[in-house]
Amino acid sequence: MLKTLQQILKTGIVTAAPPAPADELRVREALESRIREVLGRALCIREVDAGSCNGCELEIHALGNPVYSIESLGIRFVASPRHADLLLVTGPVSRHMEVALRRTYDATPDPKLVVAVGDCGACGGIFGSGYASCGAVSNVIPVDVVVPGCPPSPTRILSGILAAISKSPTDSTGRPGQ
Amino acid sequence: MHLVVDPVEWRALAQDIAAAGGRLLALWGTNRVGQCDTLHAVAIAPPRVISMSIAIADGTQQYPGVEDVFPSASRMQRAVFDLCGLRSTEQDTRPWLRHAAWPVDAFPLAADPMPSSLPSPIDDYAFVRVEGDGVHEIAVGPVHAGIIEPGHFRFSVVGEKVLRLEERLGYVHKGIERRFTELPILDGHRLAARVSGDSGVAYAWSYCQALERMTGTTVPPRASWLRALALELERIANHLGDLGALGNDAGFAFGLAQFSRLKEHLLRATEQALGQRYLLDLVVPGGTRNDLAPAGATVLDEYLAQLTDEVTVLRGIYEEHTGLRDRFAGAGAVLPELAAWIGLVGLAGRASGQTLDLRVDAACAPYDELAVRRCTRQDGDVLARVTLRFDELAESVRLLRRILRAMPSGEHAVAVPVPEPGAVGVGLIEAWRGPVVTGLEAGPDGTILRCHPQDPSWHNWPALEHAVIGNIVPDFPLINKSFNLSYSGHDL
Lengths: 178, 492
Ligand code: SF4
Description:
The complex is a heterodimer of chains A (about 180) and B (about 500).
Chain A: H1 2-11, H2 22-38, E1 43-49, H3 55-62, E2 75-77, E3 86-90, H4 98-107, E4 113-117, H5 118-123, E5 145-147, H6 154-167
Parallel strand pairs in A: 1-2, 1-3, 3-4, 4-5
Helix pairs in contact in A: 2-6
Chain B: E1 2-5, H1 7-19, E2 23-30, E3 38-45, E4 48-55, E5 62-63, H2 73-84, E6 87-88, E7 135-140, E8 152-158, E9 161-168, H3 176-180, H4 188-192, H5 200-215, H6 221-249, H7 253-274, E10 283-284, E11 287-288, H8 296-320, H9 322-328, H10 336-342, H11 346-350, H12 358-361, H13 367-370, H14 382-406, E12 424-430, E13 435-442, E14 448-454, H15 457-467, H16 476-483, H17 488-491
Parallel strand pairs in B: 1-4, 5-6
Antiparallel strand pairs in B: 2-3, 3-4, 7-8, 8-9, 10-11, 12-13, 13-14
Helix pairs in contact in B: 5-6, 6-7, 6-14, 6-16, 7-8, 8-14
């Protein structure tokens, strides 16, 4: 226990520790204030891997590390689409995941936002479309914002989330509109 | 060593390899109009790597199965049928990679083009049912609660105790092997790196090795050292990620915060040194895309010094934390005897007493000079897989220091000629998870006739079904994470 505490003290707070580039800080600040403005509460995200190579997932995971500290910006990953404001979808959509993705989308309450992450989510990427791949996420469900990159960096993913909630005017319930 | 055998000799050969303590590493089929149907296999009986082509008599489209000799062959044989239409003699004829995206009588690697009228995208898979008093089923997936890849798990339980687990995979099958045939062979490494993104360096290297072998290309010494640098960085990145996630799954969020911070710093140092956080585009035919940045060696050296200090402290904390030990020790055990029978490979194999490590047993340059110290554990439980990650992380740090000190100077890439049609090559690289094998065959005019990447997860997914028997359902996420197998690499 003592060692654990010592390590915590020694580590200190590393969030956005220098030398974080300036645009990283700008994205963080804009995102935090936009979430407060639009939602007035935490933004709930459901991640769906609809066929990715798992590379995009690595960078989505990184959002939770102490450097990006997504929770401190008021963003939470939730286990059920029913609790989600936004779906973060990766991969070219495999045909075997097409129905699961549609069902997840349908189960997410309106109004909802969809961010397609990675070159694959944006356009099918290197996998393209074929007998087993539907290609871009927008071929299966409506998409608000795409985040190109292979994989996109955590900062680009954050910018994509910011772009999505900035697009949406606030409606009377305080949830993002379409 | 390459052997061309007939189907009867294939079975005998498989039995000989198994009797010598060897392992089947890869199995794939080719079925093309105007050519003999062929089954291909790669096995290892250290120090020998044996690749085999098994010609299947015209019109029979059937070959003898070896699932009784190498249990992991079962799912591979089912996949060979789904993709190529070649059927083994095995009893289990359920589809494996095919759900309902294409009909049973269309074969993506044989038919050109595929039928465009596709059946309903949901199918009914015949899970094995466990009967008995108080037995009930729990179905999980394909979409899981966390940020993980999709797959389906069917548990038969009594109370909280697991009697049986049956996996169903194939959800992220996106047609990779057919996609390869649409790419120029000198460009295929880009797709290879994306078969399983967490092992991009290993896959790209394995592909390039196959291509370089078939074209007789000698890679400059500096290029192979840069590749090894990248491969060990990839190993450390994954081990750091897993050590944090395993702590978290056992209720120790502190571990996740600490290890994910160390991982983030590693990715930043990697980007400074080699140009990308994840090195999916570093390994190219003939060498590497770029050299180490001028300050790269210093950046990495400084990072490694910090990493060593911090991991020593964290390892002490993990070892002394009684809550973690309680969750890790004894959970999800696969004992060495069972591991040998299943053919467990890679990190999970070494945690269950299976010594195979391609960096030692089939060492390519520069591993033949690096003298990798093999790490093994005997208990085969979550604790052994955690401990092995600490051991291998330390060994990779040692290797990286040596690589940074002794890296030869010179070119980091040479040009690779377009291979002759019909040329074949096999690549074998020990990824962080286990052996990644690539079988490559050149087509005319610089095309790919066939490319088959085999992920180590093919051998290890069946072991997970054994590992959870007798454990409680709530321990499954922890046990699953301790293997951390690839879905994308398996589903292709
Ligand atoms: S965009 Fe790149 S990293 Fe993301 S899933 Fe596609 S291939 Fe993988």
